Amino acid sequence: MGAAVAFDYDLVVIGAGSGGVRAARMAASYGAKVAIVEEFRVGGTCVIRGCVPKKLYVYASRFRDQFDIADSFGWQVEASFDWPTLVANKKKEISRLEAAYTANLEKPGVEIIRDRAVVSGANAVRLMSDGRELTAKYLLVATGARPYFPAIPGAEFGISSNEAFDLPTLPKSILIEGGGYIAVEFATIFAGLGVDTTIIYRGDCVLRGFDEDMRRGLEAGLVSRGIRTIYQTTIASLAQAGERIQATFSDGVSAPYDVVMFATGRVANIDGLGLESAGVRLNDDGTIAVDAFSQTNVPSIYAVGDVTGRAQLTPVAIREGWYFAETVFNDNRLAVDHSLIPTAVFAEPEIGVIGLTEAEAATHGDVDIYVARFRPMQNTLSTKSERMILKLITQKDGGKVLGVHILGPGAAEMIQLVAVAVGMGATKADFDRTIALHPSAAEELVTFKAPSYIYRDGEKLGG
Ligand code: NDP
User: Fold this and answer.
1) Domain 349-461 is classified in which CATH homologous superfamily?
2) How far is the centre of ligand 1, averaged over its atoms, from the C-alpha of 12 (Å)?
3) CATH architecture type of domain 9-146+267-329
4) Is 187 touching ligand 1 by the criterion CB < 6 Å?
5) Do domains 9-146+267-329 and 155-264 have the same CATH topology?
6) By alpha-carbon position, which residue is closest to atom 46 of ligand 1?
7) Do 398 and 428 meet the contact criterion of CB atoms below 8 Å apart?
8) Helix (H) or strand (E) holding 161
9) Residues 135-187: pLDDT tens digits?
10) How many CB atoms are closer than 10 A to CB 102?
11) pLDDT at 403 over 80
């Protein structure tokens, strides 16, 4: 037996975002000597320029819908919006959260190193500012992802969601490319704040991969809020045209916009990280290949969060970071179950989802589909005709609930709770046994009688 190698640390984490911070805190709480290296701000994309500021801006934009129906309840509202106030208040809140994250790291004794770290071996990272090398028994790569910009002429004239939060002034017009989460969320934010908003998307309807009723329902909501959609088209080039950006589309049409934003997906943040020096294997899409315990092919190197591309969602990164710490530092081998992840799109209308879509479920045996469409009660005194949609997908004849899809106010909050039941394997009979809470939108989920239509042997019947 050789003498044990002495390392500077038990764990060095690269990246102080959702996954890295949770892993560092948990590992330190189990007695490990931990350093976390961060080149930007503590908190990562979610806190600094993602989920949190996005949700604050969503709240800001939703006042418009409230003002629209206020007079039906007798209110007369004269509203105006001030972008700099929102940006300044957002900055204050993000700084507060960053301080809280920093304190949470410091409490269990994690050393925070503000620098850029590059992997220099299976047990070592080099700090870029002073060239110092830190050795560690384990390395955890939690560097997240960054916006992907299509390789088109003039792409540099476009922005990503990173910059959208801090635009010096609210633009009069914006063109957003993409049809995913970020495109539709930012489109509804900007439209809600009064910006002339256009989505350009290569597909034929936003949110590819979501349930068709959710996609069509959201699309109707976008249109009713004045958002223009240009489908089956991409941006071919961008050019500066005075104060504005001239966008030329793949069909040859050209138009000027104040701001052009790419929401065309995110790629793993691994450039210049030195992973090759340790021989870390990547997936074809450039994410880091890991096993169920977040371990790479190099036994001392683990990776969690967006950089592994398993599911680009904060709570998933947090869970992966936590289970990594359990596995490596608490002798408690835990693998994250990625099979039933609730998710929400904070657009207008909002979408919440758990489980299979109707199209997926139809290929999973005989299923029953229950759909309710109705005007949310809040709108019934006004002329607003937008419908809420609740869809329950179950195995046939009162069997297990396979999917729940909600479009409308409160969808995210409802799905978070229904996810508990679905995760426990609840059946339609379990939902039926539950007494409705009246008047609420969610009560529809426990008061469905006959299916709206069914699938038998993959064939749609009824409806
Ligand atoms: P998404 O993967 O959701 O959407 C990317 C969009 O860009 C798709 O519509 C895609 O088209 C399109 N696209 C990709 N490449 C190109 C290209 N070369 N040219 C034109 N269009 C292209 O990514 P987002 O950027 O919206 O968000 C990144 C991730 O962050 C999400 O996947 C999600 O996991 C997470 N996120 C979660 C949120 C939440 O939970 N509420 C909010 C924001 C982000 P196609 O559909 O044809 O592939």
Assistant:
1) FAD/NAD-linked reductase, C-terminal dimerisation domain (3.30.390.30)
2) 31
3) 3-Layer(bba) Sandwich (3.50)
4) no
5) yes
6) 208
7) yes
8) helix 161-164
9) 999 999 999 999 999 999 999 999 999 999 999 999 999 999 999 999 999 99
10) 18
11) yes
3-state secondary structure of 423: helix
Reported as half-sphere exposure (CB side, CA atoms, 13 A), residue 302 has a value of 29
CATH 3.40.50.620 fits 155-264, yes or no: no
Q: Are 123 and 137 in contact (CB under 8 A)?
A: yes
Q: With contact defined as beta carbons under 8 Å apart, do 361 and 354 qualify?
A: no
Q: Which of 182, 215, 262 to mutate to test the pocket of ligand 1 (most atoms within 8 A of CB)?
A: 182
Torsion of CA 148, 151, 152, 155, to 10 degrees: 40
Strand partners, 354: 404
The two three-digit tokens of residue 144, written as one number: 């997240």
Strand order of the β-sheet with 459-461 is 343-345, 351-355, 401-407, 388-395, 367-374, 453-456, 459-461
SS (H, E, C) 173-198: EEEEECCCHHHHHHHHHHHHCCCEEE
Q: What is the pLDDT of residues 65-112, one digit of tens each?
A: 999 999 999 999 999 999 999 999 999 999 999 999 999 999 999 999
Cβ atoms 411, 352 nearer than 8 A: yes
Where do the domains of the chain lie? Answer: 9-146+267-329, 155-264, 349-461
Selecting among 338, 364, 405, 438, the annotated active-site residue is 438
Q: What is the token pair recorded at 453?
A: 């239509």
- Ligand 1: distance of its center to the CA of 286 in Å? 16
Could you confirm whether 338 is annotated as catalytic? no
345 sits in the region (left: phi over 0; alpha: psi -120 to 50; else beta) called: beta
Q: Which of 181, 214, 287, 413 to mutate to test the pocket of ligand 1 (most atoms within 8 A of CB)?
A: 181
Sign of CA dihedral 322, 104, 125, 143: positive
- How far is residue 66's CA from residue 333's CA, in Å, rounded to a whole number? 48
C-alpha of residue 184 to centroid of ligand 1, in Å: 10
Residue 237 sits at the vertex; the CA angle it makes with 236 and 241, to the nearest 5 degrees, is 145
Confidence (pTM): 0.96
